[in-house]
Amino acid sequence: MGKLAAIGDAVITTDANGRVTSLNTVAESLTGWTLDEATGAPLEDVFHIVHPDTRATVESPTVRALKEGVNVGLANHTLLIARDGTERSIGPIEHSATPIRNDRGDLAGAVLMFRDVTKLHLQERAVEAALAYAGNIIATLREPFIVLDQSFHIKTANQAFYQTFHVEKAETEGRLIYELGNGQWNLAELRTMLSGLLSDCDPVHDFEIEVDFPAIGKKVMLLNARQFGSVEGHPDLILLAIEDITERKRTADLLRRSEKHQRLVLDSIPQKIATTKPNGDVDYFNPQWMQYTGLTFEQIKDWGWTHIIHPDDLARHVQAWRHSTNTGERFEFESRFKRADGDFRWHISRALPMRDEAGGIVMWLGSNTDVHDIKEAETALHVSEIRYRRLFETAKDGILILDTNTGKITEANPFMIDLLGYSHDQLLGKELCEIGLFSDKSANEAAVRELQEHGYIRYEHLPLETISGRRVEVENVANSYEEDNHSVIQCNIRDITERSRLEKQMKEQAVALADLHRRKDEFLAMLGHELRNPLAPIASALQLLCLQKNEGKLQQKARTIIERQVGQLVRLVDDLLEVSRITTGKLHLKQEQVALSGIVERAVESARPLIDQHNHQLTVTPSLQPIWIFADATRLEQVVVNLLTNAAKYTVDGGQIRLTVEQEDDEVALKVQDTGVGIASELLPHIFDLFTQAERSLDRSQGGLGVGLCLVKRLVEMHGGRVEISSVLGKGSEFVVRLPVLMTHELPPSLTDNETVEPTGPSFRVLVVDDNVDAAQALEMLLTELGHDVQTAYDGPSALQAAIDSPPNVVLLDIGLPGMDGYEVAAKMRQRPIFKNVILVAMTGYGQESDRQRSLEAKFDHHMVKPPDFHKLQQILATASEMTI
Question: How many helices (H) and strands (E) does the chain have?
Answer without folding.
Answer: 26, 33
